[in-house]
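A quick aside before the break. I want you to see a complete sequence-to-structure record at least once, exactly as it would be stored in a machine-readable document. Don't worry about memorizing anything.
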Amino acid sequence: MDNYLKLALLGEGSYGQVYKCQHRQSKDIVAIKKYLHSSEQVVSWTLEREIKLLVQCRHENLVRMQDVFKHDGHLHAVFEFVDRCLVEEVAREPQGLQKTSIRKHTFQILRAVDYLHTNNIVHRDIKPDNILVTSSGVIKLCDFGIFSEPCIPIWVLKVFLCLLSPLSFRPVDVWAIGCTILIMARCGVFLYGDTEIDQLHQIVRKVGPLTPGQMQMFSDNPNYTSFSLPEVELPKDLRRKYGLHDPLLADLVEVSVLSSAQLGSH
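That is the input. The structure line, written in tokens, reads:
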């Protein structure tokens, strides 16, 4: 860290902290992630995975990693600095982003995920917090390494619950893209529940009944033995339930929701 000047704390979580820094010689602004986990083995695995992915992947819509080093017993990773994340952009627009902005953002997210999936890589944690937006409007997906089973966002729970194979996580990314579109359009009430079972109730009411395979997994899960899901029919007009007025975006959400549900049931 001797080569960098800390300017601001950008964020922190269970794995570490992210700082906005300036290189003392070049004056370049970067983001440095400091890993704080008490288990060096866990930290090494996390960083190793992120390094491997980011070195392997070079794409305009993926955040670029520049360096990695160890300081005061902690691992640090240096990334290109991006002005803001999608959360901040959405927060400034109470009525949702403009249709053109949502389309541009969605196109770039799809490009990034298509690149990852083509290279047999699954992000697993696509959400507005992990979608950076440059001042010129370029989307950058970040945070590949910070992942463990309990960290899966609750709004992708349905897909995770219904996966018969723990190795098949592509449906999680597909579902998350649809959820992100809804967040950008400020249809977020669709996404969040107070508990896991509440979230499942909300999703079933919005999307429709689980497939037989998914229902079997729900029944076999010991955490849900005392719960039941609402009896609903498959909605005939998913667009109206989503609250999206853009037909193209509504189609994308419908495809992401239904295709991820179908993939998750096999």
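Two observations worth writing down. The chain has nine helices and eight strands. Strands lie at 4-12, 16-23, 29-35, 65-71, 74-80, 84-85, 131-133, 139-141. We'll return to this after the break.
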